[in-house]
Each structure stands twice: as structure tokens, then as C-alpha cells.
Amino acid sequence: MINPFADAPQGVQAAPHDVRLVAAGYQVAVRxxxxxxVRDKETLMLAFLSGLGLTQxxxxxxxxxxxxxxxxxxxxxxxxxxxxxxARFRRRTAGLARELEGVLCDAQKDxxxxxxxxxxxxxxxxSDTKHW
Length: 132
Known about the structure:
Blueprint: E1 12-14, H1 19-25, E2 29-34, H2 41-51, H3 62-70, E3 78-84, H4 86-92, H5 94-113, E4 117-123
Helix pairs in contact: 3-5, 4-5
């Protein structure tokens, strides 16, 4: 069984099948972001707005996303982002995916510097599961 919570987060990792059950055992909060309808930066930001339960005040840009993910007042100290339908998103919009991964990995490093943990977990069909 894949268990990313046993180690420090590192980049985008494959999600375990029962992510919420496994996360609960490690006291990790999980939120899902669905990439199924993402076609451009605007729909990407809407996916994060919905998945993270953000208000309409969310800036819908890279800096705002980074700030939301690294703000200790908005996220638990042990937090996982479940990236649903992520492999298809990466194939569909490779350039946008590279930009997003840069922001997510920077936020992950910033969280680690604060003594916090931010896991980036890609939920995929079994045949697509891998470590990025």
C-alpha cells in the first residue's frame, strides 16, 4: 500500500487508495481539487476556489494560491491536497501544469520551512499511478 504520510512530503506523489483513512491515522487534513473540467488558468483557479472552500475574495492568481496554501491561519499544520484527475490535466495542459507544479512545490517548501507539512497527492486510475 502506498503511504506518503510516513515520510516528509516531496513533490507531487501518488495518492493511496483510501487516502482519507490513511490520512486520519497520521492526523492529516485532506481537501480535494478536481482537475476534470480544467482547461485554462481561470478554470484552474475556480477548481481551487471550490476544492479549498475559498471565498469569492480569492485572487485567482499564482500569488493568491501560494498565499492560501502557506498561510498557517488558513491551513492545518498537516495538510494534503488531493489532485483528482491530475494525469489527464497534465497531458491536456502541459504548460499550465508546469506552472502550477512550480507554485505547489514552492508552497510545499515554504510549509516545511514553517515546520508544517503539505502533501500533494495525485489520484489516478491504478494504471496511471506513479511518482512525479
